[in-house]
Amino acid sequence: MIKITSCNGNFDREPLLAPFGFKGQYIEELWQTIALMESDKGHIGLGLGVQSVLWSDPQVLSTFGSVGGDNIMCLLTNYALKIIEGRDFHTPVDLIREILPEVYGYAKQVTGLKGLKETFALNALVPVDMAAWMLYSREKGLRSFDDMIPEEFRSSLSSKQEKLAGIPLITYGIGISDVVKLAEEGYPIFKIKIGSDPDMDKDPNKMLEWDKKRLKEIHDALKEMHTPYTANGRIAYYLDANGRYDTKDRIMDFLEFADSIGALENIVLLEEPFEEDNLVPVNDLPVRVAADESAHSEKDVKERIQLGYKAIALKPIAKTMSMSLLMAKAAADAGIPCFCADLTVNPIMIDWNKNFAARLEQLSGMKIGVLETNGAQNYKNWRVMQSYHPCSGSSWTNMKNGLFHLNDDFYEKSGGIFDISQYYLSRVKRQS
User: Fold this and answer.
1) Residues in CB range of 362: below 8 A, 6 or more apart
2) What is the pTM of this model?
3) Which tens digit of pLDDT belongs to each residue from 284-307?
């Protein structure tokens, strides 16, 4: 048993290069939360999180505003740190399972939102979970990601990818010339946002027509470009609908249009076409449908698989690594592939995500592993943030021609996740 004797938390506010839009709302900064915990043996664990109120539950942002929503999520993180002081735990998975109901209940009490998404609480718990994993590893004398993972979860993380395709995010406002530039730089797969509300009137027909036009513009620009990293040699599309489609007929209309312009065979993933409470089966859609926001736990994973979802987006950097392990095992037991999605995280958290992504099987249609990452596209102070990484400057911390190259040094150091960032430590270390 590991006994937690003290905890501390803090946060940084990192500005974005431009307002970031999601489901009709926008944010201009992302709070980087920091958690420090110490055991009775004097070992410490340092964890980071990125708060995305906009992604985890947009109703919190619309109710309390950007700063108000961030304050509430930060409060939850510190509440969790307070309640675990003095507790014992076997593994971080046990710890998160134990405290999640209490933290989630407190979140509903603070927000007054009975329908609050569990993902909001999980997002707040990421730095706590990460700190617990570091503390666990130090207590056990572990220096390898593979050794750190409990035996029961290792079969779902048994691969060892040499390359990961970085997946840039193509938002509604990115110009076609910028899309082409990314393809010319070597990116073999793009995450394309669909579900736009062009006139801000929530008209589903206008959304559908806008999405069709947008897909055609992108496909016309990319259809003659080739890549060696996909099965058909074409740039792959990963479409993210953010739950914006209301009926299967409407999404089928969109996919039939994609087929008519020759884009359907390029779509390797269609993520979250419907809101999570819309339990319509998707097994008859002509593409692989992935669950992200609708999958908060292993129970949700099993439910989505029964509905015909054939891929699960894992977010160790957004829903905790502990919950992601449970979800990955549930998916693997059912023969369903997983991939790692981003939350516009900082450079250190990318390598936590990268360790996970590097050990997942390749998606159908891809010849290498994948990892969504868009922090460099969005943070104003990205280069400064890179300097906080304990292994800053290592070749595997940066992409080359749209890929992360994972050499022996990456695996030997586990992406630097066991090393303490002196900058973030200075933000939470109590003065003696």
Assistant:
1) 159, 161, 368, 369, 370
2) 0.94
3) 999 999 999 898 889 999 999 999
Identify the CA nearest to 295 among candidates 327, 317, 268. 327
For 142-195, the pLDDT digits (tens) are 999 999 999 999 999 999 999 999 999 998 889 999 999 999 999 999 999 999
Say how far apart CA 78 and CA 252 lie, in whole Å: 45
Domains annotated for the chain, with CATH where assigned, are 2-141 (3.30.390.10), 152-423 (3.20.20.120)
Provide the residue type at 382 as one letter: W
Which segment of 292-296, 345-349, 412-416 scores lowest on mean pLDDT?
292-296
CB 415 within 8 A of CB 146: no
What whole-number distance in Å separates Cα of residue 301 and Cα of residue 378? Answer: 30
